Amino acid sequence: MTLRAATLASNIRFGLRKARDVIETTLHTLETHDPAYGCVTRLLSERALRAADTIDARIADGEPVGPLAGVPFGVKDLFDVEGIVTTAGSTVLRENAPAVQDAAVVRRLVAAGAIPVATLNMDEFAYGFATENAHYGTTRNPRDPERLAGGSSGGSAAAVAAGMLPLTLGSDTNGSIRVPASLCGVWGLRPTQGRLPLQGVYPFAASFDTIGPFAGTVGDLKLGFEAMDGKARGEAPDVGALRVARLDGWFGRDLAPGLVDGLDRIMAFFSSTKTVELPEVARARAAAFIITASEGGNLHLPRLRHRAMEYDPATRDRLMAGALLPASPIIQAHRLRNWFRTHMHEVFRDHDILIAPSTVGPAPRIDQPMITVGGKSVSARANLGLFTQPLTLAGFPILAAPLAPDAGGAGGAEAGLPLGVQIIAAPGQEQALFAVGAALERAGVLGYPVRGATEG
């Protein structure tokens, strides 16, 4: 199994490993193992090796190197990386000028000692839940390569699940961190909207765009987020004193049996039987669709007028439809968003943590990308965000967490496949999410083993 980010950094700082050795091993692993999964779009070999040598030299000179010293990480292909064209999963941008500097959060990770080693595959312009990319190929799920990794941050989630990288970056507009984390069985975080800077990140829908990390453990996720956040840490709450409830109604339908069992175990851990049913969830999801489509369409309309045929056909059609939306439904969608967000704040007067599923079940097959909703077989690509899209409206922080293999019947009907949950807190309460995740990980309720692509 790949060593944890925290362990790698500690070993490097104390001279038990050389950063160059770690980076060389990581690059070899990506070159050797990634063709089976399709996570990587570009390796950053020269830069990574130079950075590793710098860290080793600083350690030899007794200089501080940061909490993530020598830890390799990958970035979704919409984060600026100095000297490289940011393609956002498309060939439409390939003639753009290279980025003049790293994205803000990439700079923060580098300042903490982490080393970027690769850019990672995604749905074109982050518009999708599958990471089926007409230009760069489909990212396969390391838990079963015949299944979808989810999206749009599929390359980031799959690289962690495959044990190729201990830490990666993704973006979440309507669930693009939460869905692939669930399907691949890794940890992911959608922070409070606006908490992390979006400078140097190619936009999709500005009203919802959020960025965050993926990792194989909640501890590594916390370490990565704190480096990205760059702020003093808040106090971790007493987990036993938290008021926890489960979202029901819309969030309790069509669930795989193993997912129901896993949610029950989480609630039993907190000795809670409380449930909350949010109002107008179907309309909230529709509002998220409308706002996303209209903003994405408006952003791309000038280019679509002249270069539409260079887009992935699936992306092009949805962007064009969004650009044609009239003003009235867009205005109504924003009104509903404000109302829904206000209601969520009211819910958190009586609760500290809400628990919900991330998807209805395990990853769909690539050749049969369908899920069952309301007794009907429907498109997975259009419906994998069933439980993530409505919560997007509120902008609250959400931890995407994998059920432990024995916490949900090892995937319910699909034995051996991961299932994931959303753990939701009030704005700014990321430390509460990490505390809850860590407690449930220690109890064996959350946490899915990472595949052993590297020896670490």
TrEMBL record:
Residues 21-234, 303-433 form the Amidase domain. InterPro entries: Amidase (IPR000120), Amidase_dom (IPR023631), AS_sf (IPR036928), Carboxybiuret_hydro_AtzE (IPR014087). Pfam families: Amidase (PF01425). PANTHER family: GLUTAMYL-TRNA(GLN) AMIDOTRANSFERASE (PTHR11895:SF172), TRANSAMIDASE (PTHR11895). This is AtzE family amidohydrolase. It comes from Acetobacter musti. The lineage of its organism: Bacteria, Pseudomonadati, Pseudomonadota, Alphaproteobacteria, Acetobacterales.
